[in-house]
Each structure stands twice: as structure tokens, then as C-alpha cells.
Amino acid sequence: MNDSRDISPAVGTQSGPPTSKRPALPFIKAHGTRNDFVVLVDPEAELECPPQLVRAMCDRRAGVGADGLIRVARAGALERAGVIPQRPTGCGKATWFMDYRNADGSVAQMCGNGVRVFAHVLVAEGLIPAAEGVEPFSVGTRAGAKRVVLHRADARDAVVSVDMGAPHLLGPATARWNGQQLRGLGVDMGNPHLAVVLEDHDAHSLAQLPVPLPVEGDPEVFPEGLNLELLTPLAGGRAHMRVHERGVGETESCGTGTVAAAVAALAHRGRRVGNVAVSVPGGEVQVSVTEDGSTLTGPSQIVFRGSFPLLDANSVT
Asked: Where along the sequence does the record put site: Could be important to modulate the pK values of the two catalytic cysteine residues (predicted)?
């Protein structure tokens, strides 16, 4: 589905409006380079988001289907509700905070594509005036406050830049995948990545690799698991990437992963800074790496709105 519209009857419900015996939860379905999300607008953090609800909504066969779930809430409200232990540096009580969950229900610190979608939803839902979007503003995440700029945004499409912060290099690291030992560059972007440059691959051969296979990282470097990026060498300012995300499996894009991939692609060419176009199965993003930070620029699209039956969600474990 490629247009933004309401869905009726609601996803997973019978025809007709929800009754008191079958409450339904409004949601927005959106994606950034086909890294897709279920978005819940919950300014005062009044909703419960247990893992079984997240898994049910993200289920691609029995639910809405998504790589993860984003709750839009005020940082102060999430703090009062005990969802976050304290507000990160740079987050006031009124700061909009991205409460992000992986498709398996686990909590994630950061999602670059998710931040783009989050900022787009803020404007599309009237939570911030559209005029504010042209100036940088802060979005809270578990990895800290992120500065974002909406270059353009309407009810369906947006182009958003996110200040991703300075990549923290973990150094050379390894992982077991597809029966082989992969060697790459460990990068912490608020979540752990291993970016592996495959010298003998181009875009065509990269597309043939069995990326969905399980990944096992070095537990000393990645004690909480990792996100694996496989990429082609940098050529003409561009690298092609596929990604296996922790708690999800292969996705068509990963924002923090594209930054990690850009860092690794530059390092492979003996460079620390530069601009890289990163092509992923879901599209293309632009990554700028400087001496003291990184910026991710790419699209966001709101696909549709609907409602999800809570009884079905609560029955899923």
C-alpha cells in the first residue's frame, strides 16, 4: 500500500465499530527506506506496551506487520510512568521522546530511521507546528537527545536529517555467520554494530547472500548481541549494504547501521571523514561523517492509519 489513508474495518477487527468488549488501539503505519514501524501517539504515556502487544502488532501474518514499534510521548510522562528511569541529558520534561521497541518486544536504545519517522509524525499529527520543522529541534531517545531537521514534510512524505552523534569505534571485531568467521569494524551508535566490508562483492552478489541467517557476535565485544552490516567497498561515493538487526532479523534498512557502514566504508579506504550514499534494499540515504559527529538524511513516508484490537494483542505471548 503506497498511500496515506484510513483503513476500515480496522486491522484485525470485524466489520463495524469497536465495542467496549473489544477495545481498539489507534496506530499509524510508516516507514523510512522500508524500515517500517507501527507508531502509537501517546503524549502522556497512558498506554501499556508489554512485549506481547509489541509482538502482536509487529507480526506480519497476524498483526499490522513492522520491524518495530514507536511510541510518541513526552519525556516527562515516560519518566513519571517508570518507562525510562530518568530523562537523558538534553531532554526536558516536555521534549518528545521516541520509546522504541524491536519487533520481538525488546527495548532498543536508538533507531535512526525511526527518528526520521518520529519527527515526521510529530508534524503530520500537529504535535509541533510545521513551521518549527525547518529549524533543528530535539527528539529524546534512550541513546540521548538527537537534533533533527525536517527539510520538507506533508501528511504523507518527508525528508529528514538526524544528528546521529559521534560514532564510537569498538575496533576490529568478529562474528559467526553462515558458517564463517566475519571480521569487521565494531561501531557503537547507541546500539552495537559490526560493519563488514566484503572486498570481493558488488551490489549484485551482495543481494544473493543469505543475510537472514542467525548471527553470533564476540560476547566480549557484543555482550548484548549486535546488528550486522554487510557492505560493498566504497566506490564513487557509494556503498551498498544489507543488514541483520538484533531482535528482528534482516530488514530493508537500518539508520544507525547505515552510519556504521559509512564509517567502515571510509575506514576501509583509509579515511575518517566524508560523505557516503548508502544504498539499501529499501532505498538510499545520505550519511555525513565528520571529526566530531555524523548526520543521516533520508525519507519518511506515512502509509496508512488504522486500529488494532487489544484483545487479540493481549492473548498473544
From this structure: 193, 245
In angstroms, rounded to a whole number, what is the distance separating the alpha carbons of residues 96 and 148?
Answer: 12
Binding-site residue ranges: 35, 102, 112-113, 191, 227, 245-246, 255-256
From first CA to last CA, the distance across the chain in angstroms is 28
Q: Is 145 helix (H, G, I), strand (E, B) or coil?
A: strand
The predicted model scores a pTM of 0.88
Per residue in 18-31, pLDDT tens?
445 668 999 999 99
Q: Which fold has domain 5-162+301-314?
A: Diaminopimelate Epimerase; Chain A, domain 1 (3.10.310)
Please report, in range form, the residues annotated as the binding site for substrate. 35, 102, 112-113, 191, 227, 245-246, 255-256
Q: What are phi and psi of 90, to 5 degrees?
A: 90, -5
Pull the grid cell for residue 79: 519518566
For 168-291, the fitting CATH number among 3.40.1160.10, 3.10.310.10, 3.40.50.150, 3.30.565.10 is 3.10.310.10
Q: Which residues are catalytic?
A: 111, 254
d(CA 104, CA 247): 6
